[in-house]
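We store sequence with structure; for instance:
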Amino acid sequence: MKLSTDRDALLSLIAATAAATDQAPYVRLVATGHALACEGVSPELAIRVRAPAGVEEEGEMAVPARTLARLIARLPQGTVQLEAAYPHLSIAYEGGTASLVGADAIMVGEFPESDAGHAALPNGAFATLIPQVAFAAARQEEGRPQLTGVRLEARGGRLHAVATDGMRLAMASLPFGGSVAVTLSRKAAALLRELSRQDPQATVAQERGQLHYRSAAAAAAITTLAYAYPDVWHVRQSLPAGACIAVSRQAFLEAVARAEAVLLDRRHAIALGLGPRGLSVAAASDEGSVHTVLPGERYGRRDDIGCRVRAEFLARPLRALPQEVEAVRLHITGQATALLLQAEAGDLLVEHIIMPVISA
């Protein structure tokens, strides 16, 4: 194996592969045609990332993942030359050389290929969907393993991304003509988000407990979580109709931020209310109080109605929305019934269901 490539391109390949397969000691470098591929395989996922390279001699070699990533990150900008003469990988850069002790390529497991038919994703699908929901997934330390992942499910001609921790439910969807129903770990979801951001055109397939992802620049085979995901669709469909108002997304976010500022504990609640003047956002503590009224267009019930909710459960989804979203719709159904926050941006539909804080 002998090739030359750009240092930044090489760093991007190795960093993505090493981070995704953090329990695997080696990554495999494969030089073929006019590209260099970096492959990593772990029990949870396998990833292959490619970048253009000037390949003089084809070949492959396994290299210590962390050491290679640290070294490349500290090289100067410019062209890097790699040459493998087993068991060493020689690295030449402007002003110096380095050498790593490698291993036979068999040290990295075989990348699991899929024969299943792939369906085309909307451009940048995971870069769009995952940020809208991932923050709502439960944490490992909360003891609810079935809720720690991000659910991807095709329903009604749309690809839905879903996450919930039992107190909030985040749902986002885009048009999709394929079939998929899997739950991914946070790490796997973050990987797909980054791969989708780097190369928006991709396909997916589901086969034998794995989700297979392909683009021109990368491929991934992700082992899905085996826990049964709750019936979130029933939760959404069972929400009663309530009072609704459309308000400025930015104004709402600023009002929530002001309310957070006077609370002594982030777990404390802010008060929301719909009245004749618009949406009221208020909070109070021993150190101060704040009250903002946002004008907006009312829908549904016209009576005054309100509830209390944790400020971060509103702030996170509002911040995650694409910048082009100017307005959101908030549905309030009563003191003991979940809130519904909705937004749209082109084909993207986003819904957040938030449980209120119930006080005696």
Observations:
- The domain at 239-354 is CATH 3.10.150.10 (DNA Polymerase III; Chain A, domain 2).
- The chain has seven helices and 26 strands.
